[in-house]
Amino acid sequence: MTEHAMNLNEFLKENTQGMLRLFVYGTLKRGFWNYDRFCRGVLDIREAEVRGRLYEMHSGIPVLQVPDGDVLTHGTADDWGRVYGELLTFDDPESRLPAIDRLEAFHPGGSNLYRRVLVPVCIEHDMALPIWAYVAGESLENSSFKRLEVSIWNPEPR
Questions:
Q1: Residue 120 is assigned to a structural domain of this protein
Q2: Number of folded domains in the chain?
Q3: For the residues 45-66, what does the mean pLDDT come to?
Q4: Which DSSP state fits 112?
Q5: Helix H segments across the chain?
C-alpha cells in the first residue's frame, strides 16, 4: 500500500483517497441518536481507541480531549488514558464530511467547541492509523464540563 502525504490545510480530501475514516465516540456510534441520520451507508465499523480524556457537557454530550503532542511517542507518566469508540469508513467524503462538520458545529478557521483533527487511532492489535476525530477546541481542565472516569461514553437512560 502506498502512503500519500497529507495536507492538513485541505479540509475535504486529506486522508481519504476516496474514503472517509472517522473515529466516533459519542452520538455518532451505533445505537445512538445521530447514527441513523449521519452514518447510514457506512461501509465498515471497527472497534477503535485513541489516547485522550472524555468530558461531558451539561447537555450530556461527550467531548474528547487529546494530547497536543504526538500521542504515539512514549514520554513521562501522565493521566492520558484510552478512549474507546468506533472507526467508521464511508465512500462519500465530499458529501458526508460537510454534513458531519455541521452536526459538530465545526467551521474551519472559526471558533469552535470541536476541532476536526487527525489523530492516531488504534485498531486490530494496536495498529495506529491517522484518522479524523472531533476533539475539544480548547483546554477543558478549567471548564465546567464533568471529566468522566470511564473510557467509554455510555449515557444514563433518559
A1: yes
A2: 1
A3: 90
A4: -
A5: 35-39, 93-103
- In this prediction the pTM is 0.70
Q: Where are the alpha helices (DSSP H) in 1-157?
A: 35-39, 93-103
| Residue 71 counted as domain residue | yes
- On whether residue 8 sits in a domain, the answer given is no
CB 14 within 8 A of CB 8: yes
Please say whether the beta carbons of 41 and 115 come within 8 A: no
One-character DSSP codes across 61-84? -EEEE--SS-TTS--S--S-EEEE
Residue 39, domain extent: 20-147
Distance CA 114, CA 101 (A): 9
Question: Cα(49)–Cα(83) distance, rounded to whole angstroms?
Answer: 5
CATH of the domain at 65: 3.10.490.10
Does a structural domain hold residue 157?
no
Q: What is the pLDDT of residues 118-147, one digit of tens each?
A: 888 888 766 788 888 988 876 666 678 888
Q: Which of the 8 DSSP states describes residue 85?
A: E
CB-CB neighbours of 150 under 10 Å: 10
